[in-house]
Amino acid sequence: MTSPGAWVEAMREALALAQDPEAPYGENPRVGCVIVGPDGVVGRGFHRGAGTPHAEVVALQQAGRQARGATAVVTLEPCRHTGRTGPCTEALASAGVARVVVGQPDPTPDAGGGAAVLRGMGVEVVEGVLADEAERVNVEWTFAVTHGRPFVTWKAAVSLDGRVAGADGGPTPITGDAARSEVHRLRARVGAIVVGTGTVLADDPSLTVRLPGHRVVAPPVRVVMGSRAIPATSRVLDSSAPTMVTGDRRPAEVLTALADRGVRHVLLEGGPTLARSFLDDHLVDSVDWFVAPLVLGDGPVALPAVSPGGAGPVGVDVSEVTIVGEDVRVVGRVRYEEN
Fold it and tell me: Of 152, 189, 249, 303, whose CB is crowded by the most CB atoms within 10 A?
């Protein structure tokens, strides 16, 4: 397998494996691997989460002796360290793989550098094949391991006049069923869902992933921030998912605590006050907003006025605008302007 075109095709298959429904979002990246011999693919694998064999090891086990002299095509640079499992560099070299084709370099200081290790073992390494596509598979994970905190997505459902609830501030149906299903799919991709005590007291949400036919591999941690007490009967305290109740109102401290738990991606679902605190600290990285075709005329808006010293204008580099049922979805990366 010496043709660059063949490497690209094999990498596309590895990328599809990395995004298999059984490949969870979580502490570890999503990775796919394909082992290609003279007559075609002899092994395939993807990572099923922390503590399980890495994609390369799964593919090597399937390939067996046919791995000797073959090419391993992997979406993320093979790790060189021993964690819950052994180094993939050693597994590949020991299996006699002749060449390793890599998509994204590993940005972590302890595991990265596997390409150099493999070359030192006499294995040919080709890097950067479909690198952009490979990086898109693990955008939030890559951000988290390079910034030392989880990637934060602010999700909101608003009316055309920018309100998140009716005049009484209580639970207000805003978006339709299709949008609500998309929110549950979004929840299934994150490691934690963050709200404030005000949201719990007003809405009593369960903050769980509820998708018919979808098996939740690892339910996101439900995080409640704020100093007010919440009732012991609150649905967020039930046994359907882990919950962290913290009196800490400082976003950076809460994100640090979540990073220590292995959380890489946070979904911010709290109300306007909590959203303002994250924005003021420049700790919102992307938005995922659903805009409903109705005008409420009164009630709380999605974001309070800027507080003294708070974040100035915030730009959004929009990557997606779609119609979801009767609502409009807007997705984009946040860009902080200079005050």
Answer: 152
